[in-house]
Amino acid sequence: MTRPTFGSLRTAVLATALAVGVLGSDALAQGGYKKQKLEQLGVELPVPNHYEALPTEPTEEWIANQWVLKASKMRKAEKDHDNPFPQPEPFRPTLQLVWIDYVADPAPKTGEDAPPPPPQPDDPRIRIIVNGNKKPTNSLERYLENEQRGYWELGPAEEQKPLDDTHTCKIYELRPGKYNDTGLRGWAYEIKSTKNTVAFIGFCEEPEWKDHTKIWEEMASEVEFFEPDGKDVQKLRDFYERRPKFVDPEYRIQIRQNLVRGWKAEDTENYIFIFDTKDEKLLRKLMKDIEAIREEYIALFPPAGPLTAVSTVRICKSLDEYHQYGGPEGSGGYWNSQAKELVFFDYEDEKGEGRGSGTANTLIVLYHEAFHQYIFYSVGELAPHSWYNEGTGDYFSGAKITGGKFKGIDVNPWRIEYIQEQLRNGVYIPWKQISRYEQAEYYNPAKVGLCYAQGWSMILRASKAADQHEVL
User: How far, in Å, CA of 367 to CA of 332, rounded?
Assistant: First the structure.
C-alpha cells in the first residue's frame, strides 16, 4: 500500500546512507556478548548485546539469520532545514548468516558420442547456465555470482585458524560489483566443510568498519555446531488440538518454530500474528478488527469455495525495522502471496495530528492489505486487476470498527484531499485507459500516487459511501 506523498515516509535508502549521521562514539560502550542458540540450524554463537535479530522473509532461500545494530545505539539523522521531509536513518551495520549446502557441479561432456548428462533436479539453488551446463550455488563465490549478481565480488582471501578438523575458515573483504553504488563496505567470513559452507556476510558504512568487523569476526570465529533438536512440535500440536477453531495448525506450528528471538506470536481464527511491537492494546485491536473486516469482505465478495488458507500478519515495531525486513520504498505495507504474509508496521503519531494518529494509520494499512489476502484466496489464488484490487483495498481502509464490530465505511484520509485537488486541476487518467493498465504501468513511480487515489475514487463512486459523504 502506498501513500501519495512518498517523501513523507522515512526510508533506509542505502545510497543516501553516507549523507547522514554516523554511529555515535558511545554505541559500542555497552559491550558484552550473549550466547545464542539457533535451534533450527544447529548453531550457537556469541551475539553482542547491542545487536538485535532481524527476521528474513519466508521465501528467502539463503539467509538463515541476520542481526543489526540496535537503532537506539545509532545517532539520529542530521536535520536538513531546506528539506521538508524527514531524513532517512543511518544505515545500521548488518551481519547475515548465509547457509549454502554443497551441490555437485554437473559432469562435463567427454565427447560428441557421449550420452547426455542426467537431467538436473528442479533445484532452486541452480541459477546460471554456463557453456550449456547449469552451475549450482554450492560455495560463497557461487552465491555472490548467482544470487548477488553484479552486487558483491570476493576480494583476496585471508586464511584463518580452522574451526576444527572438518571446517576451514577464511576472511574476505567484499568488493562492490558494477551494480553496487551504495557506498557501503562488505566483509565475509567463510566456514567451509565437505557438506556445506556457512558464510557470515557483513555490511556497514566506512566510519563503522573497524569496530564492526572486529565484532563480526568474534561472532563467526566462536561459532559452534550441534545436531539441531528443533522446538517441541508435540507441545504445539497439543496446544492447537485444544483449540480446533484455529485453521491449519500445521502452518501455525511451522511459523512458531521459525520465530526469531524477540518476536512473538498470537493466533486468531484465520490468521497468525507475528509482532515485535510492544503496544499490547494496538495488537489486541488489530486481532479483533481483522476478523471483523474479513466478514465484510465475505459479505461483498462471497468466496468461490471453502477458505482454509491462513496468513501471517507481521507487525514491525517501526518504519526502520519494516524497511530492514524488506518493506518497499514509499510503501506503508504489503501483501506477499508467496510468503503468505501481510507486512506493515506500528505507525508513530504524526506531529500536529494528535494522539492516536499513528494507530489510525496502522489500521488503514491493515484493512487495505487484508483485502488483498482475502480476494487472492477467495477467487482461487489470483489477484484482480490493479486498479480494482488497490481501489477496493483503499475503499475498505476507510472501515470503522469498534469493539470488534463493523460500523460502516468512511473516506480514506490518505486519498481524499489528493484526488479532489487533482480533479480540480483537471488531472486524471481516463477510465478506459487506467482499467487497461498493465501492472508495471499502474505502479510506475511517476504516477502511482494518482493511480492509487483514482482507483479508490472509482470504487468509492460506485458505493453508498460516496453519496453519504459527497466527496467527489
Answer: 12
